[in-house]
Amino acid sequence: MAEEKDNALMEKIVSLCKRRGFVFQSSEIYGGFNGFWDYGPYGCRMKRAIENLWWHEMVETRDNVEGLDSTIICHPMVWKASGHVDQFSDLMTDCKDCKSRFRVDQMEDPTTCSNCGSKNLTEPREFNLMLQTYVGPVFDDEHKAYLRAETCQPIFVDFNQIRVASRQKLPFGIAQVGKSFRNEINPRNFTFRSREFTQMEMEFFCEEAQGMEFFEYWKEQRINYYKNKLKFKDDFFRIYVHEKLAHYAKAAIDIEVKFPFGWGELEGVHHRGTWDLSQHSKFSGQNLEYMDHDTGRKFMPTCIETSVGLDRTFLAVLANAYDEDKAATQKEGMDEDVRIVLHLPATIAPIQVAVLPLSKKLNENAEKLYKELNEHFRCEFDVTGSIGKRYRRQDEIGTPFCVTFDFESAADNAVTVRHRDSMEQERVSIDSLNKYLQDKINE
Ligand code: GAP
After folding, report:
1. Are the C-beta atoms of residues 293 and 300 closer than 8 Å to each other?
2. Average pLDDT for runs of 10 along the chain of length 443
3. Is any ligand 1 atom within 6 A of the Cβ of residue 103?
4. If you measure from the C-alpha of residue 309 to the centroid of ligand 1, how many angstroms do you get, rounded to a whole number?
5. Which of 28, 38, 257, 379 lies at a CB distance of 3.0 to 4.6 Å from 266, suitable for a disulfide?
């Protein structure tokens, strides 16, 4: 993952996120808390929009995918059955000289400290990534519980409940979005590897004979989503085919993205066979087999998983969208050197429409228009600074449309719509503005 680093781009993205209130360190006034991040006003708008887009794509537009919203803390046996308690660990080593801590599989040379160059490292030892807590008043092993390490396990545990309640027949899927927690040894690369993060996972259940067909289907669906919905450029993502598979898996790919620090996994599409349901059947003593009522045959469903991090998607979207446009400043006669612009898809931009009155005298009418538009779009009303400065502020947060209310607007009942990417301006009548913007956003 060390190839093609662009540290400068990473710094710019981190700085923009902090400056404009997208993402910043959790508990910053206490010095921050490593591996935890807060999403500010623009950040949580965009994060929610990405989540909604995923949910719409994976659940709402499909008859055969149901949703789940499970608890973060489940019965501890869930994590015993899934293998997390015994096997969800990384090898770590410490530098005895500078006290840096490393995940062995991430070290370029596992015999040398990459911080100070010392060879004085501890023997690698296993470190379990599950975050623990206690449920009830006694803090002993009997009351130990875990914060979920992935959102998919409750899907397997609740499989029968959901199947019966929804009256779904195979093939069908169950999706969940929610927080997951991992005590990562070395959280790094901004939100890419955190200790608390959101996952968006879908488990699709089918007969064994259909497993590879659905694996290919979901792989294609997810690639198309990145191309068409998140507008990832062709050279921004690639497919990594796993050659070494988990013992129960039949096939696995990762969708990797060119993050500023190098290629990194964004999403996994994995053929998990019957492993998870079989494990939970074994540990719970409940039969999770599926009965085909047409043939009377009973069998354990095979599962295809699509699993992606919301925080990683957020970061990938920013990396794909970030641009510095030198020509733009001349075109709009601004005196700064470069225009910073996020070419975000309009569907997920934190602000979709900014309403900007050309003069304070126009504030009242413009604000009325803003309030109307705000019923339909994520809007912002900005009255401070020159119009050029206001355009730049909106470019920097990726607002696709700026609506300028000028001195003619009241008379001709029209406004100027300025497009973020081309900076072209169009006169649009206020009566058709809503539909005009709706069409452009859905384009
Ligand atoms: N259920 C399968 C599963 O959890 P994973 O590869 O461990 O597989 C899936 O995680 C996705 O969750 C990753 O591709 C990534 O997008 C996200 N993810 C995993 N660990 C993360 C972390 N520490 N910080 C942020 N995102 C993470």
Report:
1. no
2. 72 97 97 97 98 98 98 97 93 92 89 93 92 95 96 98 97 98 93 97 98 98 98 97 94 98 97 98 97 94 98 98 87 82 98 96 95 98 95 97 96 96 97 98 91
3. no
4. 6
5. 257
Q: Cα(364) to centroid of ligand 1, in Å?
A: 48
pLDDT of 328 reads: 77
- 3-state class (DSSP) for residue 188: strand
Written as six digits, the tokens of 31 are 């010095």
- Establish whether domains 2-81+134-318 and 89-128 are of one fold: no
- What confidence score (pLDDT) does residue 106 get? 85
Residue with CA nearest ligand 1 atom 6: 268
pLDDT for position 94: 92
**Range list of β-strands (E), 231-352:** 237-241, 251-259, 262-273, 290-291, 298-299, 302-309, 322-325, 339-342
CB of 197 sitting under 6 A from ligand 1: yes
The model's pTM: 0.95
Domain boundaries, the chain: 2-81+134-318, 89-128, 351-441
Question: What would be the CATH architecture of the domain defined by 89-128?
Answer: Single Sheet (2.20)
Phi, psi (rounded to 5 degrees) for 41? -55, -50
Q: Is the CB of 265 under 6 A from ligand 1?
A: yes
351-441 placed in CATH 3.40.50.800: yes
Amino acid 4: pLDDT: 58
Q: Is CATH 3.30.930.10 what the domain over 2-81+134-318 is classified as, yes or no? A: yes
CB neighbours of residue 209 within 10 Å: 8
Q: Does the CB atom of residue 199 touch ligand 1 within 6 A?
A: yes
